[in-house]
Amino acid sequence: MYTARINSVKPGMVLADSVSNLQGVLLLAKGTVLKQKNILMLKAWGIMEVALEGQPEKEENAKPQAEDQKKSIENILMDRFYGTLDDEVMVEVMNVSASLLYGRLLKENEVE
Amino acid sequence: MSQLNISAIINRIDDLPTLPRTILRITEVINNPRSSADDLSRIITDDQVLTARLLKLVNSSFYGFPQRISTVAGAIVLLGFDAIRNLLLTSSIFDFFPKRGKNFILEPDELWDHSLGCAVGAKVIGSYIRHEKVEELFVAGLLHDIGKIVQILYLKKDFEAAFSYAREQNSLIFTAENRTLGYNHAQVGKLLAEKWNLPSKLADVIAFHHEPGLAENLTQDIAVVHVADVFCRGIMIGSGGDNRVPKIDKLAWESIQLDLKKIKPIMEQMEEEIHDIKMTLE
């Protein structure tokens, strides 16, 4: 058994303990095999961590990234964030945006 | 332009959109401390459309109760008064957005996506800072740009001028409005919120989401929606009418005490949840 951040939980994982909301209402019972909709529901309730059966997964290696697509996302973001990047918070927001937009692009490419 | 002058402009609009009567009555009942769950349940069940929507929403994966909820009374007991009010407000706001295809300079669908993105963002940030009422933040995010709806429907020429200025100068629409019109969507939204008798807490979010530092009382709700707006613009969910990401206000950032390291998981969760909530509401 181990504790996992909700963002790293994937369908098929098994709850090692039951999960309740802040009011104490049972949301999911111990032993539930998580589906995508269960994970979204836990997030909607603001659940941050859950106890899972088994061992944590090793992180997969990131795939090699297509440099030009990345570059064009960066250029768009540099325009959007113009004049704000002397602030460390904004730099972080831009970096996270870049990685999320790139992920979205990869997903779209897969579908096509 | 002074608040009084914009107020005069707004007052000239005869058919300013109204909230459905039922929502107004529900707000009254909820604000009255002597109301019972029965009182609320009776008003909701009088409205068949609202009842159907409420049951659809509470049974959706967004709330995800393990068992099916088949009665309004059951939903009230499980969710509580405030959550019900917010949920009904959410579903009526959707009706209030104009449908596409009427040649609006800012596509209402884009604005809806931006508002929904900001709502989800506010809710996610709220859960990270352990805000007590995340549904309230959700509604505040959904409504923060409500002034723009009034503008694209009733102040079309003005809004078009600001929109073009923002395009040409690559500025925020907020800046463009102030320069070209002398008033902005936050002021317009505030007036609408007052007309609708929305809680003052909510009106303040609408009024100060661009300039939290100017609020007499910088509430957490204002700060959270301000930050959610910036996050949402960063990951380009919908459009509020320009292509810029404004700087996060220092006071607002300090007031929510969010660790820099939390930005990533929050924005990731926003990206994921937005798709789910879109399916539920539309």
Write the layout of secondary structure elements.
The complex is a heterodimer of chains A (112) and B (282).
Chain A: E1 2-5, E2 19-20, E3 26-28, H1 36-44, E4 49-52, H2 67-80, H3 88-111
Helix pairs in contact in A: 2-3
Chain B: H1 3-12, H2 21-31, H3 37-46, H4 48-58, H5 72-79, H6 81-96, H7 108-128, H8 134-143, H9 146-154, H10 156-169, H11 173-180, H12 185-195, H13 200-208, H14 220-234, H15 250-256, H16 263-281
Structure notes:
The complex is a heterodimer of chains A (112) and B (282). By secondary structure, chain A is α+β, with helices and mostly antiparallel strands. Helix content of chain A is 42%, strand content 12%. Chain A has helices spanning 36-44, 67-80, 88-111, and strands at residues 2-5, 19-20, 26-28, 49-52. Chain A has a two-stranded antiparallel ribbon with strand order 1-4. In chain A, strand 2 and strand 3 (26-28) form a beta hairpin. Chain A is elongated, with a radius of gyration of 18 Å. Chain A starts with a strand and ends with a helix. Chain B is 67% helix and 0% strand. Chain B contains 16 helices and no strands. In chain B, helix 3 (37-46) crosses helix 5 and helix 8 packs across helix 14. The mean pLDDT of chain B is 88. At the A-B interface, strand 3, helix 1, helix 2 and helix 3 of A face helix 7, helix 14 and helix 16 of B.
